[in-house]
Every structure is written in structure tokens, then in C-alpha cells.
Design goal:
The chain is an alpha+beta fold. It has helices at about 35-40, 55-65, 85-95, 120-130, 150-170, and strands spanning about 1-5, 45-50, 70-75, 80-85, 110, 135-140, 145-150. The chain is built from 5 helices and 7 strands. Strand 3 and strand 4 (about 80-85) form a beta hairpin. It starts with a strand and ends with a helix. It binds adenosine monophosphate (AMP).
Amino acid sequence: MLFSGDFSAAVYQSDSGSGSGQVSGASGGASGGAVKDILADKGGEIHTITTGHTVQEVIDMLNSFKIGALVVADDSNRPIGIVSERDVVVGIGQKGPELFAEKIDTIMTANPVCCAPDARVHEVMQKMTDGRFRHMPVVSDGKLCGMISIGDVVRKRLLELEYENEQMMAYMSG
Ligand code: AMP
């Protein structure tokens, strides 16, 4: 299932941070951009799947959308899990082709670490590095509103660092 959101306006509210591992928002005056800036640039497409589906269906969706992970959402559009290409590879390594017909519940990671739209990009990058995963659902008021990947985060950080560098050079050259 594919959801689109409007991320062009400042409609985001920092999530209260309920749920394990939630990156809740700006903290301690941290510098750098926010996750909502990434979503504004890339759009609000979120590819989701529900638990009744098979691993084969996950593979088909990952291939057809050319993405690395799907959010497993409930009927209220709340993220209850995440299933990535890594889960498929590990599952095939363990079970072989039998895995294709199994339900995704057998390979998904339940209760994924999520972030709020106001979370700082560098915080999310740290969470991804610490947790050794490359995807993070973005949640507002408990509901999915985006999905970001390590590629999005690295791209954003590079732009920020380039900008900071240019400002510094301009300041030094007077
Ligand atoms: P990835 O690097 O995103 O392909 O995922 C590597 C492993 O981490 C897989 O087992 C995923 O199910 C899991 N994973 C991916 N994203 C998250 C997340 N946001 N929170 C928790 N686990 C995740």
C-alpha cells in the first residue's frame, strides 16, 4: 500500500515520544536540519504492507518500488514492524525457498525505532548507526507520515556540512 502526504507546509508537530526508541525532536539546541526537511524534499511516499502477506509479496514490492524496506502498518496506519531486504536474505539463508510462502511476521522486526518529523537529522543518523539499520519510519501522533533511509540522511548531512563550510570560508575571507 502506498501513502502520500503533503510535506510542503510546516504542519508538523513533535511527537510526544511515546514508544520505545522514539527520536522525539529537537534537543538541547542541537544544530542541523530536521527530518521534516528531508520529507519536504523527497515527498511523502510511504510503502507499507500488513501482516497477512507473504515474504514473496514483500520481495515483489521491494523489487517493483526499487526500495530496501517496507513498513508493516496496522489498519490505523500505525507502524507495528519493518521488513527489509536484510530480513529476506537472512530468512532465505535459514529456511531456503520455503520462506517465500511464509507470512512476513516470521521475518519482520517488531516495534521499529521511529522518529518524529521534528527529530534532528544528526540524531537519526546516530540512532541508525547505533542500531545498525538503514531505515526509519516517521511518525506523528502515532501515525505514519514518512519513511527515511540512511541515503536520505547522509545526503542531507553532506549538504548541511557543505553549507557550513561555505559560511566559514566566507567569514574567514572577510
Ligand atoms: P536495514 O539496514 O534497514 O535493511 O535493516 C537491518 C535490520 O534492522 C533488519 O532486521 C530490519 O528489520 C531492522 N530494522 C530496519 N529498520 C529498523 C528500525 N527503524 N528499527 C528497528 N529495526 C529496524
